[in-house]
């Protein structure tokens, strides 16, 4: 539903947020933390688009990691770049505001209303914008929603994209009183119905398995965004969109946007040479390689913007000792590029320390709680984010980011503040110095982190120091991020693991799999699914399920907060901080930057007068 989306397990954990919904099925595919978030705060860092100050015409050059294999974000080959392009080309009935709340997009939706809580069955009535048409002139209609529901419900295995959360809760889609009214009836209550049909694809692309399973690439496909696709050159690394002549909304300010494949390691050069106008720089900074010289450069620390995240993908090697210094150099270079502004924001993704209950001594929940309390979250956040120019804001919720409505720090639920007391009570005693022991065994834990990330290394270093002061020996072990999930997290040969989960407007659906109680599979072995902490309870599962079906927003939030309290008490994991986001933008470009929870309103992006 947003730029960050889930395309495979690795992408789900290490890149970004997904397409929300109302079921427990797979989710497929953006200052110090107060006790509750300031509702006036904003998460993004974008030069606001005053359309009157943006000139008409011109071309923008926007960096991609690569030309995506498909524009259908629900297919397994999709990427975050697929979702970025989809925002320019396809409808989303709702879009996130700066706090992650889903609000109707008036370009596509004149209104939407659900039956009140307690009334069964739940029926959502959509009023589609009567001017909204596909670029062959066909109006958006119930047929498009019907076909997408069939493709994503999981009822027909011939659709190879797999089910998307929420669509399996739909009982029927019918036309209402006129062709622009659509009624969606649910077989069970779906609290997060606003997350559905975003993006929405034309029935021609989803009505049959054969149509849906084709890679959505190249020109000639229907779209209905402010821009239309005019070039799709995978070999040449270029996707071009131009103004949609049938667009009914605000006229796009820019004539054309060229999306150019630019690997992160080349983006600073491309910005410096004027070949890019908008370029995400998180990975370019975080995975910068140290200079070839034998000793790292020395300079005083200086504030800087966000860098990559512990979850950054595709890093093939362990971070050398000079990785933080290399990241600082890359960041300094980015800030010094003439004609480029570096934008910083906290991304819609939560970095957490997961405690593996299925390995070693952390099978004891009392020890997990003690280890969780031993984490100095503020010190860790400051170590990770401070060098990047972001406040060291620790998180207190597994399910909500600090800027989201209803955020609450539930960390007191883990137990008393005195971690040493909790460790003693769990039977791990501290001799005169050294490492705690129990029954003759030392409390020595492995910490799995993705390789190649300077932010991960800073985070791990802070954790090692903090744990060491309490007599817990921690040995960091890096693994290539490209295989981090399937070869490391899935195998479970670690005690602690550092990675990120996406967070969005639909936590009951988006987050459930991370905390679902492991169940025996057909062979009797415990199947943890995507719960890499390998601990869970029936109560937590029920709270998620009730929240997903609770139509009253306040009651739903209460259930989510109760689930968060139980996750803390379980000692499952420790939320640390929101992932940093760093974007370089050419001076004079308006409406682009670090979007936080949001995504670009492409028709407003352009060059200042």
Question: What do these coordinates show?
Answer:
- The structure is a single chain.
- The chain is of the alpha+beta class.
- It is built from 17 helices and 24 strands.
- Mean pLDDT is 88; it is low at 1-21, 23-42 and 293-321.
What's this entry about, in short?
The chain is built from 17 helices and 24 strands. With 609 residues, it is an alpha+beta fold.
Q: How much helix is in the residues?
A: 10-25%
- Strands, count: 24
The general outline is: globular
Percentage beta strand: 15-25%
Write the layout of secondary structure elements.
Elements: H1 9-14, E1 45-46, E2 59-64, H2 80-89, E3 94-96, E4 102-104, E5 109-114, E6 123-128, H3 142-152, E7 170-175, E8 181-186, H4 203-206, H5 209-213, E9 227-233, E10 238-243, E11 256-261, H6 264-272, E12 278-280, H7 282-286, H8 323-336, E13 340-355, H9 365-374, H10 377-385, H11 419-425, E14 437-438, E15 441-442, E16 444-450, H12 454-469, E17 473-479, H13 484-489, E18 496-502, H14 507-510, H15 512-515, E19 519-520, E20 526-527, H16 538-549, H17 553-570, E21 573-586, E22 589-590, E23 593-594, E24 606-607
Helix pairs in contact: 8-12, 9-11, 10-12, 16-17
């Amino acid at each position: 539903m947003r730029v960050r989306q889930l395309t495979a397990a690795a992408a789900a954990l290490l890149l970004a947020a997904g397409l929300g919904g109302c079921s427990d099925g797979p989710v497929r595919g953006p200052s110090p933390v107060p006790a509750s978030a300031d509702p006036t705060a904003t998460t993004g860092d974008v030069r606001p688009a005053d359309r009157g100050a943006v000139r008409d015409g011109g071309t923008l050059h926007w960096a991609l990691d690569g030309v995506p294999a498909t524009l259908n974000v629900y297919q397994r080959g999709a990427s975050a770049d697929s979702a970025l392009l989809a925002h320019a080309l396809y409808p989303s009935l709702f879009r996130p505001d700066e706090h992650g709340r889903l609000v109707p997009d008036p370009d596509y939706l004149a209104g939407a209303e659900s039956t009140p809580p307690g009334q069964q069955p739940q029926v959502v009535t959509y009023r589609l914008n009567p001017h909204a048409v596909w670029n062959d002139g066909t109006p958006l209609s119930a047929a498009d929603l019907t076909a997408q529901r069939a493709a994503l419900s999981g009822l027909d295995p011939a659709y190879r994209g797999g089910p998307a959360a929420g669509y399996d809760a739909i009982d029927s889609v019918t036309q209402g009183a006129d062709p622009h009214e659509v009624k969606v009836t649910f077989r069970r209550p779906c609290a997060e119905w606003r997350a559905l049909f975003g993006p929405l694809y034309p029935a021609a692309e989803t009505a049959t398995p054969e149509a849906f399973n084709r890679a959505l690439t190249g020109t000639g496909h229907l779209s209905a965004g402010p821009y239309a696709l005019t070039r799709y050159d995978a070999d040449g690394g270029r996707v071009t969109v131009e103004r949609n002549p049938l667009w009914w909304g605000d006229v796009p300010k820019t004539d054309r946007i060229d999306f150019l494949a630019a690997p992160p390691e080349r983006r600073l050069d491309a910005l410096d040479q004027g070949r890019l106008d908008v370029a995400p720089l998180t990975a370019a900074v975080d995975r910068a390689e140290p200079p070839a010289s034998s000793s790292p450069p020395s300079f005083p620390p200086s504030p800087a913007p966000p860098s990559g995240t512990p979850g950054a993908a595709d890093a093939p090697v362990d971070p050398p000792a000079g990785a933080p210094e290399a990241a600082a150099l890359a960041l300094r270079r980015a800030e010094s590029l003439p004609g480029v502004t570096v934008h910083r924001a906290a991304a819609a993704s939560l970095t957490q320390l997961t405690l593996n209950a299925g390995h070693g001594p952390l099978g004891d929940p009392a020890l997990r709680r003690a280890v969780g309390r031993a984490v100095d979250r503020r010190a860790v956040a400051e170590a990770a984010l401070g060098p990047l120019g972001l406040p060291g804001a620790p998180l207190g919720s597994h399910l909500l980011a600090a800027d989201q409505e209803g955020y609450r720090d539930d960390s007191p639920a883990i137990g008393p503040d005195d971690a040493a007391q909790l460790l003693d009570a769990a039977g791990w005693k501290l001799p005169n110095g050294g490492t705690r022991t129990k029954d003759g065994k030392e409390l020595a834990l492995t910490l799995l982190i993705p390789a190649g990330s300077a932010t991960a290394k800073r985070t791990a270093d802070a954790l090692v120091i903090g744990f060491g002061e309490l007599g817990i020996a921690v040995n960091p072990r890096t693994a290539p991020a490209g295989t981090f999930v399937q070869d490391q997290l899935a195998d479970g040969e670690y005690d602690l693991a550092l990675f990120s989960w996406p967070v969005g407007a639909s936590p009951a659906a988006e987050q459930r799999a991370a905390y679902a109680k492991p169940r025996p599979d057909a062979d009797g072995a415990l199947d943890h699914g995507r719960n890499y902490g390998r601990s869970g309870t029936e109560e937590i599962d029920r709270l998620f399920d009730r929240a997903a079906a609770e139509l009253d927003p306040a009651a739903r939030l209460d259930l989510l907060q109760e689930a968060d309290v139980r996750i803390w008490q379980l000692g499952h994991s420790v939320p640390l901080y929101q992932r940093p986001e760093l974007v370089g933008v050419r001076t004079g470009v308006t409406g682009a930057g670090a979007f936080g929870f949001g995504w670009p309103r492409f028709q407003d992006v352009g060059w200042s007068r």
